[in-house]
Amino acid sequence: MTNSNRTRRAGPNTIAASNEAPEMRVGGDAARARPVTIFHETAGAVVMIGDRCLVLRRGREWVFPKGHLERGERPEHAAIREVREEAGLEVRILQPIGSTRYGFGDRADAVHRKRVDWFLAESDANAVRLEPPFSESLLLDREEAARVLTHAADREVAERAFEAASGIARSGGSTRT
After folding, report:
1. Which of 2, 4, 118, 155 has its CA at 20 to 30 Å from residue 78's CA atom?
2. How much is the CA Rg of the chain, to the nearest whole Å?
3. Residue 134 β-bridge partners
4. Whether the predicted model's global pTM rises above the 0.90 cut
C-alpha cells in the first residue's frame, strides 16, 4: 500500500488535528473544538480465481485487497495496483460492483471518512505473494466468504461479486464459475 495523495482534510477547525489539548487550540475552547474530518478515496477488488474469491488476512481480519488512490489515479487502476502490491497478482478488471462507505476515529482527534470503490477482477495465477502486514490468503467459495470475511460490508461486496461473476459466466464472459 502506498500513502495517498488523495486524502483530504476538511472542516472549519483543521488546526484541531494537533496534539494540543482542546482548550489550547487556536480558534476556540474545548466546547467549540470539533475534530478534523479526513476523507479517503480508496479502491479494491474482489479477485476471482476460477470460481473462488481471494481474501487476505491482516491481523485478525479477513479482507479484500484495497488501498488509497494516488494523485491522478483512476479507481480501477488503483484496484489493479493494490492487488499487485498486496497479493502479487496481475488482474483484469471485469466490472465495477459498487462502493462502500464507513468512518472511524483516531488518537489525534480526527474523524476519518472512507469511500471504497469495488471492482470484480479475475486472475489466472494463484501463486499469491503477500505484502506485509498480510500473513495469509485463502480462496473461498460464496458460502465460505460469507462465513470468513470479517466485516459485514465486505460480505455484501462478496455477494455482489459472486452474483456479477455468475452473470458474466451465463452470458459467455471470461469468468469461470
Report:
1. 155
2. 19
3. 58
4. no
Put residue 66 in one of left, alpha, beta given phi > 0 → left and psi -120 to 50 → alpha: beta
- What domains can be seen in the chain, in order of their start residue? 8-170 (3.90.79.10)
Residue carrying C-alpha cell 505484502: 131
CA distance 131 to 146: 24
Q: Give the number of other CB atoms < 10 A from CB of residue 112.
A: 16
Instruction: For residue 56, count CB atoms less than 10 angstroms from its CB and return exposed for 0-12, middle for 13-18, buried for 19 or more.
Output: buried
Alpha carbon distance 93, 122 (integer Å):
7
Question: What is the chain's length?
Answer: 177
- What's the grid cell of residue 143? 458460502
67: Cβ–Cβ under 8 A, 6 or more apart, which residues? 1, 2, 4, 42, 43, 44, 78, 81, 82, 85, 86
